[in-house]
Amino acid sequence: MLPSQATGRLPLIGFYALYFSITGIVLPFLPAYLKSLTLSVSQIGLLLSLSPLLALVAPHLWGHLADRTGRPHHVLSAVCAGACLGFIPLLFVERFPTLVAALATYAFFASSITPLIDSLALQHLARTGGSYSHLRLFGSLGFVLSSTLFGLSVDSVGRATVLAAFSLLVTLTLWSFTLRDSSGPTARVPVHPLAGLRLLADRELSWLLAACALHWIACAPYHGTFSIFVGSLGLPPSVVGISMGLGVTAEVLVMLLYPRVANRISPRNLLVLAFASSALRWAGLSLATSRGVIAALSLLHGLSFGVFYVASIAFVVRRVPPHLRSSGQGLFAAITFGLGGLVGYSSAGAGYDWLGGHRLFAAAAVLELAAAALVLRIPPQEPRLPA
After folding, report:
1. Does the pLDDT at position 309 exceed 80?
2. Which of 21, 119, 263, 321 has CB 3.0 to 4.6 Å from 146, enough for a Cys bridge?
3. Which one, of 102, 126, 122, lies nearest residue 51 by Cα?
4. What pTM was estimated for this model as a whole?
């Protein structure tokens, strides 16, 4: 890598590390903090559903603005500032209606951060070369470091959760001003407000997005009920921590190795592998009762998230015109994490009560096979572009 390339990537690397460090605190610890405010489980469930609900709309709006203005780095800075302002009330409010307003505002902005930074990263790599996965792995490292260090530094989950997350969010907003548009002078292409949605006319892209939404629905039992499932087996909480640590480690390793196979195996085939491996993972959990088996199955997280995410991004890049890059990533986020997350999280709790943990994971395995079948409907011939 040339020194100029490394210098140009440092803002992106820092942004990924900071943003997913925030996620490493908010995702595992915010539900426990909300519980400490004496909210009911149903109220917490509603609050947590705000993020995928807003992700149905917000990424398309911000992605369109980024494409229309041709200044995605400015839009990203504005989105970070908005998320920061939306998070401020969480530092002192405790009433449910106010928490709804604050978390909805935060989610309206924060749900668009990932597709916008991905768009900037892909734009940079299109000019300088390199692998997206080698940039994105710094996000995974930030996640595991922040969640581990925060968990070790506090005796109980309280106000420190929102203070730590807010401090990192302010730092992220300031860091976002180091990002630059690396596309150089180009002719401005008029972008219709519905241009992002019109991408769905591409049948192969639609199959891909439907499969990704199904995959994310299938992942919801793990994201939402895994700790409950482990406890129901009479196993200690350390099994959850060990399993998640092994999973993120596998994810980082996969992202490091991804460029070695990306030029030999198409994103389509890698996605089939990811969904089939996920089916095996959930089927294994549907039968598992011991900590060793559960921990071993967590190593498949490298495929069920690592390969899934980078291969999906690569597929979208190959199907979307460069002037709609932000809109394409926004559409991917809206359908996968918005629609898939909303359906998945809203049904996982009810499914656990109705089916129990083992049968719920068995149902998730079936969904993964359905996702793999949808991807197999896509013709194997794809343009050979850098991953």
Report:
1. yes
2. 21
3. 102
4. 0.82
